[in-house]
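Entry 14. Structure prediction run on the chain below.
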Amino acid sequence: MASTSAQLRHLIEPGQRGRWLGVAAFALAISAVEATGAVLIFVLISLTTDPAGSIDLPLVGDLRDWVPAIAQDQLVVATAAGIALFFLGRALVIVVQRYYQERVLQQTGVDLAVRLLHRYLRLPYAFHLRRNTSELLRNTNDSVNMLLGSVLIPAVHLLTEGLVVAGLLVVLLATAPLATGLAAVVIGPVVYVTMRLVQPRLKRLGRVSQREGARSYQALQQGLHGYRDIAVLGRQEFFVDLFRRTRLRIAEARYKRAALGALPRVAIEAAVITFIAGFIAFSTLVGGDALRSLPVLGLFAYAALRIMPALNQIVSSLNSIRFGGAALEDIRSDLALPLPPSSDDTHTMAFSQELHLQEVTFQYEQTDAPTLFDIELVISRGESIGIVGPTGAGKSTLLDLIVGLSAPSTGRVTVDGVDINGRATAWQRNLGLVSQQVFLLDDTLRRNIALGVPDDEIDESAVREAVALAQLEDFVSSLPAGLDSTVGEQGVRVSGGQRQRVAIARALYTRPRVLIFDEGTSALDNLTEAALIQAIEGLKQHHTIITVAHRLSTVQDYDRIVFMRDGRIDDVGSFEELGQRNAEFRRFARWAGATHA
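Output returned:
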C-alpha cells in the first residue's frame, strides 16, 4: 500500500491535489456523521429499555443532565424526532459526498488518459518504432479505466470506509470496551487470513489481465485492418481464434478475481453473526438478564449494519488495488518517460541557403550496427534532390533525419548553420511531407487536406490551391458533396492513386518551402505521375524538392540524385552523370527500369 500510495501521488498533478483534499475532508465528515449516528441509536435504545437509568457517554457524562426535566414519553418522542431529522441530513451529506467524489475521480480519469495520449504524441519517433500500438491503445483506454475502477475508486473507498470504521470503533470502545475487544478477537484473524490468501493471487491475475488486454487489442487490430488480405486467403478463423483465446484468458482472470473477492465478504459476515450470537449467549449465561445488554446489542447491531459492509468494502478495495497494480505500474512508467526538450520558438526556422548533413551516423536503439554511416550531404535551397538505391540502403532513415523525426547518433543536421536538434518543430514548419503509407481520417476530403485544423480556421483558398496542384480537381468535381465527401476508414472509398493525391494535397496545403516525397508518387499511374511532376516543376523556383523514389522516372530530371548503398552515400550527381561514371547505378537503373516497365 505504501508503494501504491507513492505512485498515486505522482499520478495526481499539483492542480488537482486540492480536489483530492476535498475528497479526504468529505471522508472525515462521513466518519463523524456515522459515529454520531451510532451514539444516537445507543441513546434511543437506552431511553426506551431503561427509562430511569443513566445514559453515560464518554466526555459527556450522564446525558440526562443535559436535557430539561420533561416527561419520559416526551423525551423519547423528541429524541426519536431529532434522530429522524439527523438521518435525513445524513442521507443528504452522503449524496453530496458521493457526487463530489465521483466527479473528482472521473475528471482524474479523463486527465490521465489525455496526459498519456499527449505524451505518446510528443515522444520521439524511435519510441513508436519499438512500442506496439496495441499497448498504447490499451494503456490510454483500458488501463486508465482499470486504474480508475480498480485503484483510484477503491482507494477512495478505503479512505472513506476506513475512517467510518475507525469512528464507529471509537464509539464501541468507549461504550462497550469488553464486547468490542471480543469482536476484534473473532473478526480480526478472519480478515487477516483471507487477505493473506487472496491478495497474492489477485496481483498475478491483474498482470495476466494487462498482458492479455494488449494481445486482445493486437489481434483485433490486425484482423480488422488486414481484412482484405485475410478474406482473400480465407484466414478469418485464425484471427477469430487468436482473439477468442486472449478474451478467454481475460475472462478467466476476471471470474477468478470475482470469486476471490467474494471470499472476504462471506467470511466477515459469518464472523460478525457468530460474534453477535455468542455475545447474546454469553450475556445470558453470565448476567442472567439479556435485557440489560440490549442497548449494547442495539449499538452493535447498528454498528454491524454499517461496519460489516464497510469492512467488506475495505477488504474488497485492498484486493482491487492489488489486482489493478499492474495497470498502475504501466501508466506510471509511461508517464515517467522523458520527453524531448520543448522549444518555445513559435517561429519558422529560416531557410535561405542550405541544409547540411555533417558526418552523420545513425543507429537505432537495441540494434548491433548503424543504419547510416558518415553521411555528408549539402542540399541548397531551390534544388530538386532524388534519393535512390536498393531496398535496405537507408533511404527512409536518411529522410527521417532530414525531416527531424530522428536525431543523429553522431554528427549534425543544420539549416543555414543552425542545428535542428532541439528545434525540429521550427524546422518542420517549412516542410510538406508525403509518406508512402498514406494516413487518412475517416472524414471529409477537406478535413483530410487541412489535417488537424479546426473547421473555422481552414483556409479555403489554400485547400483549393492544394487540390489543383495535386491533380485532384476532376476527382473532387465528380463527387456529389465535393470536398465534403468522406473517404472512409483509411481512405477505403477512394483508389490508391487518389489516396496518394490527397496526401500530396495535404502536404501542399501549408504552402511549404520544402516538399518531401517518401515514395510519394508510388501509387500513381504514369499519366497522373507525369502531370504531377509537371505541376511540381513549376514549384521548383520557390521550393526545395526532396524525393525518395523507387521509380527512377520520378527523379530523372532532378538537379541531383543521391545514390545510396548499404547505409552510405555511394555517389551524387545528375542522372546522366551517375549513368556515365557509376557502374552500380547503371545496374540499379536497369533493374528499376525492368521492375517498372
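Residues 440-512 form a domain with the Rossmann fold fold (CATH 3.40.50.300).
Filed with the rest of this week's runs.
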